[in-house]
Every structure is written in structure tokens, then in C-alpha cells.
Write a structure and sequence with these properties.
Layout lengths: L33 H13 L15 H22 L1 H11 L4 H27 L3 H19 L5 H28 L6 H53 L21 H30 L5 H13 L1 H4 L2 H10 L1 H18 L6 H19 L2 H8 L6 H30 L3 H26 L8
Helix pairs in contact: 2-6, 2-7, 3-4, 3-8, 4-6, 4-15, 5-6, 5-7, 7-9, 8-9, 8-15, 8-16, 9-13, 11-12, 12-13, 12-16, 15-16
InterPro entries: MFS, MFS_trans_sf, Proton-linked_MCT
Membrane topology: Multi-pass membrane protein
Subcellular location: Membrane
């Protein structure tokens, strides 16, 4: 980062002219005060305004891959935490007087706010305020987790885990992802695929910690250990993430032309039908193992770990297939179709072994299309300069659908008395999502099957 240019007084003045403070020519440039110089230095470190002519993306190298590693840690500590809520859902249901549906509002609120807040925090990256935004989000995230460790009732958990960590994650995950993408061009798809795999890895780490520590040290210290993991990982993010672009002008928050773009509308609606079933499985996979198959709480968390863990390769490989063979829309459709099949097959699961198989296949299928939907929105946009705006609009709508997913599933579960009704609901919702995405593909590219799109 270059230092701010400071004007220096002319050194070639007549030496015989004495300049008292009263007679000094104020038209000449004056040295800056120490206070303004210090302020300029601070501002130059906080913003990216002193960056000029960064050149093309390096598309590799130590610094670029360091940004990938840091972004991976940030995603692990945000979306990985969200995807681990199944470990908490089952535990909260055993200690709180609230119903499963009410408890699900904690995780659903967290996921919704992650999506929604990201719309606005991405603008901070454009304006050159990357570091203050990320630091503020990380501090709020840590505060949320450590206050969660002393929560004793439902409303305290909703405020700390649901609202505080949800807003905090949304504040810094979008700028981190955006910054990482500025370091890559040809390898951007692979780089972001690696970054999103942090989501699945976090879904392994958090449930493992909960399973190992909860019975030994209690809820409070278990959550504090999670907080210390976040402190260590996110300190690396603050230390090593470095913006490379100067501030740039952002467009409006809403692209009204998108409301007349039928493929875009159909695709976003399709994702809205897919998100509630995803969070239903993440939140209730351990509860099903415990309630229907008689597994212990500790053993049931293995299903949460597996469902997240198998998603690591599934978040990277589909991007490669889409880039080189099928296209993002076709690859998304295949992933969703596999998801439909495995969700309906859940109705036939009646043993622990079969449920392990279900968790593996579902984890692979669901992760495959989750990693592709931002790329698909870009592919559906006719104007690449509006991709960020349209992605932000999609995040807001998808966040609202994620908000409703867990509570709806819990309400259906309570009304039906067993898991048959919520499984049928989630499967039918996924079928509807698949139909909308196929419709978006056909409106955009026609009905021919052998079209790469």
C-alpha cells in the first residue's frame, strides 16, 4: 500500500526575507500538522483509497492463495457454524420447554440474517472499507458466541446465537468472499470452490467439539471452546487478508429490470423452495436418529458430521464439471434431481446403517448445488456489471425462505406426530424447486437437452 502524498513547502525562497508568523505569506503551501498527518496514516490503513493501478489479478502465488486460506477460515466460522445447528437443536430440545418448531427459530434466524446482512456489507468492500467492516463483524461474532455460553433460556439463545452471530457473520463473510475473488480470473471458480468447502469443514469441527465436550465440561465451557476456535481462526483473517483494489462505485441495491427477467425470477424462486428442506435435514438429522432409531445423543451427532463432511469434495468437483463439461445450470439440475431421489428414499430408512448411507448421499447431493447457485445467477445475467446487485437481491429472498424452513418442519413434525409428514413436505418442496430451475433453464436456453448452459 503506497503512502499518501504530502505536499512539501518550497525550499527555494529568498533567505533574506524574514517570515514572522504575522507576515508569513499564507498563499504558500504549509506543512501538515502532526495530527492531520497521523489521521491520514490511520485512514490509509483503514481504507483502500491509497491503492492505485493494482494491475490484473495475479491468479495465483503465495499472497493470492493466502487470501483463499483466510476466506476458507472465515466461511468455516460463519456458515460452518450455521450448518452445525443440528447439534444444538437436539440438545436444546432436551433441556428447554419450547417445542422443536420454536427452537428451530434460533438456527433459521441465524441463517436468514447471514444472507440478508451480506447484501449491505458487500458495499463496504466496494467503498474501500474492507478492514473496519471485517473487524467489526468478527468482534460481534466473538461477543455473540461468548455471551451464548452464559445463556440460560430460549430468548437469550435466540438473541446471542440466532441474531448476534447471524448479523456478525453476514457483516464479514461477503466482503471476505468478494476480496478473495479479486485475486483470481481464470482460476476463480476453483478458488471460490475451495473457499466454500470451509462451510462443510466447519460443519465437522463444531459438532465434534460439542460431542466430545458437552457431557464432560457442560454447555458453557463447550461454547467457550468454540469461541476460542473462532478467535484463533479469525485473527488469521484480520492479520493476512489484504485488499488489492481501490474503492469503486457501487450500483443500486435493487435492479428493477430483474423483475422482468423470467429465467432469473424462476431460478431464485426455485432456490427458495430448496433452502427449507436443506435446513430441515441439517437441523433434524440428529433428532431423527435419536427419536426414530434409538441412537444416543453423542452417536446421533455423527450424522451431522457426515452430512457436512462429505460436502467438502462435493463443493469443489461440481464447479470443475460445470466449467469443463455441462455448464452450471445443467450441473445444478443434476444435483437437485439426486437430492429429490434421496429425500423420498428417506421414507424407507428403518435402520442405523441405512441412515448412514442416506446421510452420505444427501450430503453429496445437497452440497453440489449449494456451491453453484452464485455462479448460476452470474450465468443467467445478461449484464455482468449487475451480477453483484442481482446476487444481493437473491440473498435477501433466499434468506427469508431459510428463515421459514426449520420452524415449518418443526410444526409439521408436531402436527403429524412422526417424521413421515415433514419428510414428504421437504421432498415435495424440492420437487417444486427442481421444476422451477428446469423452467428457468428452458426459458433461457430452450428445450434441447444437449445444450451446455
Amino acid at each position: 500500500m503506497t503512502m499518501e502524498k504530502v505536499e512539501v513547502p518550497d525550499q527555494h525562497l529568498e533567505p533574506s526575507i524574514a517570515r514572522s508568523p504575522a507576515t508569513q505569506d499564507t498563499s504558500l503551501p504549509q506543512p501538515k500538522s502532526s495530527a492531520s498527518t497521523a489521521l491520514g496514516r490511520v485512514t490509509s490503513h483503514l481504507t483502500t483509497r491509497s491503492i492505485i493501478n493494482p494491475g490484473p489479478p495475479p491468479d495465483g502465488g503465495f499472497r493470492a492463495w493466502m487470501q483463499v486460506a483466510c476466506a476458507w477460515l472465515a466461511i468455516m466460522n460463519t456458515w460452518g457454524f450455521v450448518n452445525s445447528f443440528g447439534a444444538f437443536q437436539t440438545y436444546y430440545a432436551s433441556i428447554l420447554p419450547q417445542s422443536n418448531s420454536t427452537i428451530s427459530w434460533i438456527g433459521s434466524t441465524q441463517a436468514c440474517l447471514m444472507f440478508a446482512t451480506g447484501i449491505f456489507s458487500g458495499r463496504a468492500l466496494d467503498a474501500g472499507w474492507f478492514r473496519p467492516t471485517v473487524v467489526a463483524g468478527i468482534i460481534l461474532q466473538i461477543v455473540g458466541i461468548f455471551t451464548m455460553s452464559v445463556a440460560t433460556n430460549y430468548w437469550q439463545l435466540l438473541l446471542t446465537q440466532g441474531i448476534c452471530t447471524g448479523v456478525a457473520g453476514g457483516i464479514f463473510f461477503v466482503p471476505v468472499m468478494g476480496l478473495c475473488s479479486t485475486y483470481f480470473a481464470k482460476r476463480r471458480g476453483m478458488a471460490l470452490g475451495i473457499v466454500t468447502s470451509g462451510n462443510s469443514f466447519g460443519g465437522i469441527v463444531y459438532p465434534v467439539v460439542v460431542r466430545q465436550l458437552l457431557e464432560k465440561v457442560g454447555f458453557g465451557w463447550t461454547v467457550r471452546v468454540l469461541g476460542f476456535i473462532n478467535v484463533a481462526a479469525l485473527s488469521v483473517v484480520i492479520a493476512f487478508m489484504k485488499p488489492r483494489l481501490p474503492p469503486r462505485k457501487s450500483g443500486p441495491l435493487v435492479d428493477y429490470a430483474a423483475f422482468r427477467d423470467v429465467p432469473y425470477i424462476l431460478y431464485v424462486l426455485g432456490i427458495c423452495f430448496l433452502m427449507p428442506p436443506i435446513y430441515f435435514v441439517f437441523y433434524y438429522v440428529a433428532s431423527f436418529a435419536r427419536d426414530e432409531l434409538g441412537m444416543s445423543y453423542a452417536d446421533s451427532l455423527n450424522l451431522v458430521i457426515i452430512a457436512n463432511g462429505v460436502g467438502i469434495p462435493a463443493r469443489v468437483l461440481p464447479g470443475y464439471i460445470a466449467d469443463h463439461f455441462l455448464g452450471v445450470l445443467n450441473t445444478t439440475i443434476l444435483g437437485v434431481a439426486c437430492n429429490v431421489a434421496i429425500l423420498w428414499a428417506w421414507l424407507g430408512v428403518d435402520s442405523i446403517a441405512a441412515f448412514y448411507v442416506f446421510a452420505v448421499i444427501w450430503g453429496l447431493a445437497s452440497a453440489s448445488f449449494q456451491s453453484l447457485f452464485p455462479s448460476t445467477i452470474a450465468a443467467l445475467s445478461n449484464d455482468i456489471t449487475k451480477t453483484g446487485t442481482r446476487l444481493g437481491m437473491a440473498f435477501l429472498v433466499i434468506g427469508l425462505s431459510a428463515l421459514a424452513g426449520g420452524p415449518i418442519a418443526g410444526a409439521v413434525l408436531e402436527a403429524g406426530g412422526d417424521y413421515t409428514a415433514p419428510i414428504c413436505w421437504s421432498s415435495a418442496s424440492t420437487v417444486a424447486g427442481l421444476g422451477l430451475i428446469v423452467s428457468a433453464r428452458c426459458v433461457k436456453h430452450g428445450w434441447r437437452v444437449r445444450v451446455r448452459c
